[in-house]
């Protein structure tokens, strides 16, 4: 009885399964027609009658910047302004739609999609309501990079008997998106008591590896896609159809899901190769034992071409390499000849992602916004006799930076910082050209040995959210004898690059250009080159030097003058340059790198700059609109985090002194606002609770303490995914905090003592997920103002709120600077901003644009006058500069913009302008190296101020700083020895000049703490500070020792809560 019941249950389950069998109409990985040229297709393209014969054809997964792509989609010539929409079309045949039940679609996409069947919209995902245009942005940025499968039901009404057209338009959420993806599956239920009676069939046979049509003879892989899972597929089921001299054998067939079968074919000779499947000769059936429906003879084919050997090429571009793309730290062992790379993947160049010509797609990890920094490559080659070659030339394509090793020894690095290279070391610059430019260099024959050799290459990205990566390389040998017999190939210039200095923006003076040729040449002369210039710039060649002995690289030195750009070109004719076979140079060359000459402004720059002793911090000084420094009671103060917690620090001389623990956390970034003797500190902590700490200055103790009206911190959440936050206080004492979320600009407010906070108020929506905002009080206008970036509209925005009005009442958007904004690059707006307010109500805003195009503004100044009218934007820089801040000395009539030279760290520079007529001169270096994240004070300053930044040369961050002045300050006194007696402290020292030890006398008009510090003429502190307490009117005497210090000028500085005083001392050893 139990046995009979089991059989009945099994039959029942089988009947239910078959009666609702799924019929796959479009499997994942199918072939689609697609259009990726950025044109507006209107609505005609969705109809069944539309002619798409000129569209491209490819196999899903489609996309760029994601893993698992079979067909690379083009995004246009500008990676910072990619095409928004890509179109897809596919025709399927249905005999009788009435015999089919529910239609179900599974889709994998990034970011948004609209799906149509026979011209009727059936579904949309991540798209706004209303009509959809070719430039309509997706409503949200999709996560998962097209790896997630979304399922939805499709209305059966639009389907007809016969041909049905499925069309899909994929939209991106922003034009500078890093990735795009599309794949789709469509299935239906089959009803009927007789079960599944539908025979399987072949949907397509496509090229899989390599994906390009033209390839070399060898092993290739075809992918066969069936309409549903099948069994019984063997190599004998396929027939290789060849032309020319091609001979081919199917050696292996494998499948992971029963629908996709990959057949490996070994092929030799030249000609075409196609793979067919002949149904009558197979035992292929579906899961219900239905035999294959018919033959398939219209698949894609390969064209096999034997490689044309390059002269003396040991290996060429598009060669095979072992590679590792899993983000692990390989340390240094991977470079050596003994290292085993057996577990690494194998692919052929060009390698990369986010580029249109990648033959092997490299993985970058699960998070497109935090990609792996480094990809490793290894290649073995054997050289019988190294002495047959005088040197070796390498041509390399890469994006962004590269280090090359031969047999474990470094032979070349490009676009990488100096020093040791780790697996997470960022490239120094973001490379342009997506790996299309060829960089050439020479390796001496001493780097190689007879027998096996290993070339190892590590390619680094300039930032974790990079949009692309690329690598390919060829190695050429220069033989001892003259060029090969029959050589008729003319040499050419492959590059003319800046060699010394390598930076683009420089002051006029001596420079060196490096010229690389495709092969060894002779007859090179300075007379073969000319300068192409702009503005008043000019140059004179002063010398030519061959680099190495292989004759492929030459350095040309020159003197430059004036302002503008200078580029070195090779003349198109009239030269005597030729290779070893007397082939003349092929053509001129006008595509080299340029220098931008900028002359220093006479009398410009700070009067003095004194370095502040660096200190270790646990979180960098980032968050572009924030201000971390203030001055009160004659001292500078800041709030910075360490591994022990977040502290209030006081600047004593040029050293920060830890004063007060304000939070036990180590990951906060501070924005500081001073009102009277109170300092309010917003500790922004991302998605975690942010804190408000309020400090009260105790004059008697000459120190800050927690505010007596609220000695505890105020806690609130700013999110989700806020990038930064700032605070300010209106005329009624109400505190406001402004912050961004992925789609909106928000404010919250609190009234004194700032314990509880309002709910978020959205004052602007529709911004991009990496836009930011900042808030500022406008007391002369009785207003608060919020400035934001919007990379969806390409503009900056500002709204104001009148103090005393409803907290939700804000003005119309003022769109600062939009009157002259250009449709260049990805638009006017970028998420970099910093503001300072003048006493008359003029607001100065330093911003970064998204033009990202040579010859167009990179950093700009926006100026809002007290009447609410915005000036036209003022250009600060072209070509370079990031994270600008603005500082203002109204007494001196000077405005300065301080910024980092390049993304991810570089030199810290500044430019200055008078307030009367805003115009910025040449950049002035504050410090050279790998620094970033400049910050200073919200307030204007008189005399001196402090600039801070982060040393990013290692992951062990340090806060660096500078005490800068415009003359009427302590810093100036340190430089010129003038005596400041406004506080009546009567500082004296004797003997002067002194030898070894000096006696110091001073009297304070009020009692309190004091500090004595000695500096050298460079502003560097040279002895430990002497500290103590002094009574009012009582003479104080102490000794200062200069033992061990060299002879010269020194500055003695007395610091009290009343101010500072300095005197000049002369030390004679």
TrEMBL record:
Keyword presence, Signal: yes
Keyword annotations from UniProtKB, A to Z: Signal
Signal sequence bounds: 1-21
Annotated protein name in UniProt: T9SS type A sorting domain-containing protein
InterPro entries: Secre_tail
Boundaries of every Secretion system C-terminal sorting domain copy: 990-1064
Pfam family, one: Por_Secre_tail
Domain of life per record: Bacteria
